[in-house]
Write the structure tokens for this entry.
Amino acid sequence: MAEPTQIADILSLTALTPHTTELVLRPIEQPVSFRPGQWVSLQLPVGDHPPLNRAYSLAEPPSPTGHLTLVFDHVPGGKGSGYLSSLKPGDRIPLSGPYGHFTLPDPDSKNLLLIGRYSGLVPLRCMIRSLARQGPLPSTTLIAQAPSPAEQLYHEEFITLAASQPSFCYLPLVNEDPTNNATTVAAIKQIAVKGRNVTPMIAGIKSFARPLRTFFMELGFDRREVKLETYD
Ligand SMILES: Cc1cc2nc3c(=O)[nH]c(=O)nc-3n(C[C@H](O)[C@H](O)[C@H](O)COP(=O)(O)OP(=O)(O)OC[C@H]3O[C@@H](n4cnc5c(N)ncnc54)[C@H](O)[C@@H]3O)c2cc1C
């Protein structure tokens, strides 16, 4: 069934890094009930044939307030992200959702291996926060790639979580070129080659995510065992 479109109030815009912004929205008609890893579609009044539909993953697990937290990076020349950057508290935008199947596997899945680049970390962060709310995290490794040290999204938060939860391992990597996956592949080899008892989930742009899925398949994983969320 199609999800109805409704209007949402913009509550706040907060810079998280020089080129990413957190956007908090309040749907005014009905609550959006979602699972961590899912996304909403924003209908933006820009582009050659408005509305321009753009997908944004939810960054915070569901809360009693019903507020939705999104995070977007400012894509150079990007119509949608450029428009979002111009919004102010009190503005309104139509949205629909939730959508998507990039969600946590069943609770018996062991050794989550979450891999994200830049804003691809957003759905993974939502999952991690949701798991952390429920108690000690299951064994989870997060490989987080950023385009520069200043753009390491949620870096301090993940460091703090890793310090308090022995089952959470945070591996931050900085790499300007999304297609240069050597350090990420080396980290995966360390973790996944020991045994196939990991559950890989990868999010980011295709040039980052797809070669990593291919690498897992070379290690012997079935294509369906590697969950992927691509952004472009
Ligand atoms: C399921 C899903 C979830 C998503 N979640 C998020 C999210 O949580 N946060 C977020 O910031 N984005 C997310 N995206 C991407 C988002 O929907 C937009 O594609 C992105 O903001 C760029 O849109 P734009 O209109 O600004 O750029 P466009 O005007 O569409 O593109 C401008 C140029 O940038 C390139 N480009 C497009 N997208 C990207 C990108 N993400 N990175 C680098 N270059 C790009 C295009 O190829 C084009 O050349 C998600 C996409 C999908 C499909």
Notes: The helical segments are 79-85, 121-134, 155-164, 182-192, 206-218. The CA atoms of residues 12 and 167 lie 33 Å apart.
